[in-house]
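Look over this record as teaching material.
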Amino acid sequence: MSEAREFSVAGYEELVAAIIGRGYEISEFGKAEPTERHLVLRHDVDMSLDAALQIAKIEKRLGISAHYFVLLRTEFYNLYSAEGLAAIEKLLSFGHHVNLHMDASLYHEDELEEAAEWEAGCLQCITGTEVDMISFHRPAPQLLGRKELLAGKRHTYQPKYFEEMAYCSDSRGRWDHGHPLDLEALEQGRALQLLTHPIWWVSGDTPENTLDQFLEKRIIALDTSLAENCEVHIPGRFSSMGKDRK
């Protein structure tokens, strides 16, 4: 198996390079044309800002920009923390776009418009830049192909980006729509929205082991932070939890 087909940091770089090698040009959502060889790189940051930064550094080295969609309401990271703010600052300094990854399941359908406006406004306060795109986290079927704007903003599942352009995602650490390099759209020279989730690419391991490693790192980080903020806590007692489970 070639590196371009591996879920690894090197594999991601090789994959992007392979698509560009077929005559594709990196494009933003707002400038992408379905009938052109335009490649839109989209990253939904579901779990790890650190993983996002690792991928972002590769793209910076390649001289290309991507769209990073971050969650405002999640248990996995905190955009308002020192670490979260530093990550956003780095993404922007690398020349990437930072937009809203919205978990629509947290709201009733009639609340989506107001919720999107509120979340986008909060994220704009963090980034200091306009939030003009939204992606949905684990979208319900009725959101796929939705034509309407949301809070006056485009979203990644509008027909232009999800149906007229080719779409390929690595959800759950696999290519359910087929590997990007095997898509008929690439042979036809049609635009491609390539959705990746940075967490799957940074360990070079199976999805299951990747998540175990992520969980262990989170436990260690929380353990350390708890000790720094409360002298009652004795750090290190849970460092072998993951090993004990295996």
